[in-house]
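[SOLVED] Need 3D model of a three-part complex

Original post:
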Amino acid sequence: MLAKINWREIIRLVLVVIVALAIGFVITFFTSDEPVKAFWTLLTGPLPQFSLEGGLHITNLNRFGNWIEDSITLVLLGLSVAIVFRAKQFSLGAEGQLLLGALAGGIVALYIPAPPGIHLLLVLLAAAAAGFLWGFIPGLLKAYLNVDEIVSTLMLNVIAAQIYQLALVQWLRDVSSGSVSTPFFPDSATLPLLVPGTRITAGLLLALGAVAAVWWLMNRTPYGYELKVLGSNRRFAEYAGVNTKRVIASSMGISGILAGLAGAHISQGLLKRLTLNLSPGIGFEGIVVALLARNDPIGVLITGLFYGYLRTGGQIMERSTDVTREVVLIIQAVIILLVTAERLFPAFLAWRARRLLEENGEAEA
Amino acid sequence: MCLGSRATAPDRGQPGPLCGEILGIAGVEGNGQTELAEILGGLRQPATGEILIRGAPITDKDARVMRQAGVAHIPEDRLLNGVAPDVSIADNLVADRYARPPYTRHGMLSPGAIREQAQRLMAQFDIRAAGVDAPMNSLSGGNMQKVIVAREISADPVLLVAAQPTRGIDIGASEFVRQQLVDQRNHGEAVLLISADLAEVMSLSDRIAVMHKGKIVAVFANRPDLTEHELGLYMLGVKTQSVEEMAA
Amino acid sequence: MSLDVVLSSIFSVAFIATIIRIATPLLLPALGGLISDLGGVINIALEGQMLIAAFTGVVVSAYLPQWFPGWPVWSYALLSGLAGILAALALSWLIAFFHLELRTDIILTGLAINILAAGVTVFILFVLTGDKGSTSQLASLAIPNLFIPFVNTIPLLGTLLNGANGDGYNLLSYAAILLVPVVSLFLYKTRAGIHLRAAGENGPAAGAAGINTRRTQYLALYLSGILAALGGLYLSMGYLTIFQANMTAGRGFIALAIVNLGNRKPLGVLIAALVFGAATALGAQLGTLDVPPQLIEMIPPTITIVALVIYQARRKAKIAANARRFQVESN
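Solution:
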């Protein structure tokens, strides 16, 4: 069942993005002295620049690197959200799962010696296990006791943040360092660099592998079928004999694995140590990625790259013009609002009306 | 070899349909018919009583167990639990068997087998849609119901529980669904027909049981001179048969 | 600091004053969350509404005296507070419009509003001041404290009634406490409140009974926006007199937890807010000992989850028991 490409849907999403960017531009226009330059920087900043002076060489490769690094995090978080959304659950726990994933990976990196290769594997396993645990707990509570997963995941985020700080400040901290952070990890425990001149590491392969794995899980396994049916109509899934409780709990656990790996990417790939402010507020960013991708793993890869591009462009714009990167947040908010508001698009409405008409005509015939 | 199934949910020792028989349940809505169907479908747990399928009692009565025991269930409210609306027709047709071969082999789902079954069932049950990949909610009520009937009958059940099988669908589809129930009976399987449409019950059933306040209060062999008026007296609780009369 | 010093400071009247200061910006949005929750429109955007109100209040109070000099100071503070409330109401309208008119998912809408508020506040902050961190360059006003005269001469009573500094509690702290019975009266004794709860309990049934559920839910979102705004204003014009980027720091989400921990009742919400306030205050006190404050900060969210688990487990048992009783009675 390779999902047939739904052009109407894609056009709608592209329209949403264009409208959101246009709103961003209008805001920039009224507040900036150089709105065109600012927006141009936002939209082209992350691209590497080629120069022919003194032979071909590439400049600004680090910007391109920032884009890909950020996209790796966003793709993993987007996949994490896509899985729970597919089952119509609502985990907001990525932030906590990410922190604990990074923490567990960091502990293994620092304290459990292992030969190269195996060490990194253990680190990733630890990060995945911590994320799984932190997703599975609210999953179990939701599935078997109907404990609201929004409140429980938000609370678990708070608890995870405190555990992370506690561990870092009390035990893991490198006292000789000026900032609150651990020593740097040994090379055997970090993700190996792929592109020199950037921080693009094997985390990229991790993210691509995760996209493939989630695609396979969703489209080629009975479990993926259960997720889809559960998400469409829980009572139907129960009627058909699906163990819905098991699926709900495990989907949140699997979602946690992906968020935990996103944490490992940040700690083992980008920072190569644990710092106090590991990832301010990135936990909710997976939502916009999954929403734009309609919970499709391949779509998550595309929208993750898109949103990472926008975020990186925003940072470059902030550095080189008088517009702050918060414009990107406003654009993001507009995207979420418009994507979820299907009624907003008259063309879409007209199409629905036509289809309803056809249905009724058929029923009468 | 069919030894008959006995469904005895709301009260003890009450007759269920036999093999090669359509047992119709007549009754004013709200007298336990919905609950009876849901118990047999495994969606609701009986407080007392037991369910025998081919004489064997079923203990853990969830939906999966009931289906494995050979009970299929056309639910009374198809939109509530009969379909997954934004999922394809092919996937809706495989809902009770997706985890078994040929649909899953070695832990992997086989989209080819799923589509192939869908094409076969869509032709066999005259389901009119854009294709096997069309989402369920693009279908008319009648075609949606045909998908459900196709799925439940192709499960090859020992007992088919049909709750309000023709409610809210057009005449052509209704006729088609009724014929499917009769065919099922003619193949020697048991059918339990629950319908608020008394004429439907009287025209299709071999025997008719009347439910009142959660209990079966009368059982008739269907005969041409049975009148709606007579059934109505039992449906309203004015008359009640004795246990001996019911067994007769 | 030794243990007995810490203990004596915990069991002191000053500690109660600290709890009240910390609990105010939790209690106000939690009451708002309670109203929207009971109205069936869970408001995830409390956080963003607090933030935008905190920001708007500070900015307006900094510019208003320049634009309209010569008015009494209290009128500037009052108008700034109203401006903050209006900003939060605008967000309420956005949520209501998207959720009730365009049928978007209310949780996603709320999240979008939070992101919007975080973005807009810092964006405008930078445009106005060239600083992304805080409004330290703006001279903004405070919402005044309410000072109770004469009691300061009485040692304990003075601290209890006028706070540790002896200059009184902020007006908004009094408002928060007073709003507990007010919200309770509104929810249980007024027609609008009863309609609101009916709409949240069972929308279609309430609609069938002639209640305009859409209008009721608009009201619920507006009221929760006002209460969240008061919480935000307390942060930037009471607790501090400055706006800092993301100064709400998750209080809007904690407020949602407080609603649940308080069993969705006004009095329960008050107690739960005090529990969260006490844990934070305790964490700050114990930090001077060797007890890590993080451990203390973990307590309230843990209690919230445990309370939810117990509540749901009991509910489940009750439903099962009711079903059994029904069967016995009907046989």
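Edit: Residues 6-247 of chain B form a domain with the Rossmann fold fold (CATH 3.40.50.300).
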